[in-house]
């Protein structure tokens, strides 16, 4: 039986591939404020299952694969075993809300990608193991907590630079949701994080 992380990845890859081959489908799934204003609220979710290109898809799914499997068990006891799926989907929705509020009347704004959900998973993992080594580009080892700080600064920089439909600020809001939701569901995670942070164990 497939774990929920793998199932999400399979669905995301299939939907992204189909959207690349069908522009009409892509336009229906992408986050577009005027369409949302007209009642297409499902775009708060669907935009998280399509990607700009193969590298965008690969980076998000690579990250989700490694960290989703590591933390999925923490959420499984909730919502009849579907806690992780709900956590991931809610992260995609919540991460988009600030951008929607900011661009509610912007007819030229478009956004796509699983950044909100993936960031929530990544930052939840950091709560559990802040000094665990993350391999940047699958080669360069870096402590998870330092990666998180760099990730935030890069997201701010990329958002200000613009030039793509990738919602970089969703990285930050998704990460914030991941941290808050995890602490709410399992309050013991916070003292665990603090203790782990103060004990690098190098």
TrEMBL record:
Membrane topology: Multi-pass membrane protein
Name the record gives this protein: Rhomboid family protein
Gene Ontology MF term list: serine-type endopeptidase activity
Family to which this protein belongs: Belongs to the peptidase S54 family.
Principal location: membrane
Segments passing through the bilayer: 6-23, 44-67, 79-97, 109-128, 134-154, 166-185
Subcellular location: Membrane
Domain of life, per lineage: Bacteria
GO CC, alphabetical: membrane
Alphabetized UniProt keyword annotations: Hydrolase, Membrane, Transmembrane, Transmembrane helix
Positions of the Peptidase S54 rhomboid domain: 39-185
């Amino acid at each position: 039986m497939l774990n929920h992380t793998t199932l999400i990845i399979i669905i995301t890859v299939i939907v992204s591939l189909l959207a690349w081959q069908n522009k009409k489908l892509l336009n229906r799934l992408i986050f577009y404020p005027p369409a949302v204003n007209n009642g297409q609220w499902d775009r708060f979710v669907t935009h998280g299952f399509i990607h700009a290109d193969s590298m965008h898809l690969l980076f998000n799914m690579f990250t989700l694969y490694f960290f989703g499997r590591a933390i999925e068990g923490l959420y499984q006891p909730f919502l009849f075993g579907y806690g992780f799926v709900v956590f991931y989907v809610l992260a995609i929705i919540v991460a988009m809300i600030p951008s929607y509020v900011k661009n509610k009347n912007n007819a030229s704004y478009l956004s796509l990608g699983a950044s909100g959900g993936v960031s929530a998973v990544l930052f939840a993992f950091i709560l559990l193991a802040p000094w665990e080594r993350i391999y940047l580009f699958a080669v360069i080892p870096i402590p998870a907590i330092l990666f998180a700080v760099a990730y935030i600064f890069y997201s701010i920089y990329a958002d200000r630079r613009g030039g793509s439909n990738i919602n970089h600020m969703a990285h930050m809001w998704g990460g914030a949701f991941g941290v808050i939701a995890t602490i709410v569901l399992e309050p013991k995670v916070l003292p665990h994080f603090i203790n782990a942070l103060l004990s690098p164990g190098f």
